[in-house]
Write a structure and sequence with these properties.
This protein has two helices and no strands. The chain has 168 residues and is mostly helical. It has one domain (4-127). α1 (4-142) runs antiparallel to α2 (144-167).
């Protein structure tokens, strides 16, 4: 016969063993599910990190392109401004050169005109002096005493004039 107490012990042992096996199976399943979830999470995190890295690289490329465009635009503007300044300076230099040439030509014309007028005045004055000397010579031949008296009177008048001016 079998011992009823012993049978229940075997049944309990079998039930505990079955429960332990079920717990082990559940733990293994939970471990596998956790490992699978962790692997999925790691893959998703890696995918998200790759996507973020790609977006960051694109943003850096766009920022670099924008900065390069700004530098190129500033360089072009500076080059254009420099060319404009050179053109303005060249134009101003040409204008000043032209004005200087016109002033030089006007000065040369004025000098030529003044020289011509001085030459005419000299010739006219020389003609008047020659006529005056000729007249005095003729009068001296006609009446030398009168010419000497007029000359002496002129010298006295000149002396009185100088004396009057020097006293003031």
């Amino acid at each position: 016969m079998t011992d009823p107490h012993h049978t229940s012990t075997d049944a309990t042992t079998d039930a505990v063993a079955d429960a332990a096996d079920a717990a082990r199976a559940a733990a293994t399943q939970a471990t596998e599910a956790a490992r699978s979830a962790a692997d999925d999470l790691a893959a998703k995190a890696e995918t998200a990190a790759d996507a973020a890295s790609d977006r960051l690289a694109d943003a850096v490329k766009h920022a670099t392109g924008a900065a390069t465009s700004m530098v190129d635009a500033a360089k072009d503007a500076a080059t254009d401004a420099l060319a404009g300044a050179k053109d303005a300076a060249g134009s101003a230099r040409d204008d000043l050169s032209s004005a200087a040439s016109q002033v030089k030509e006007a000065g040369a014309d004025a000098l030529d005109s003044a020289q011509a007028l001085a030459g005419q005045a000299y010739e006219s004055g020389r003609g008047v002096v020659d006529d005056g000397v000729g007249y005095v010579k003729q009068k001296y031949r006609e009446n030398p005493g009168l010419v000497i008296a007029v000359g002496a009177a002129a010298v006295v008048a000149l002396g009185l004039l100088i004396r009057g001016i020097s006293r003031r």
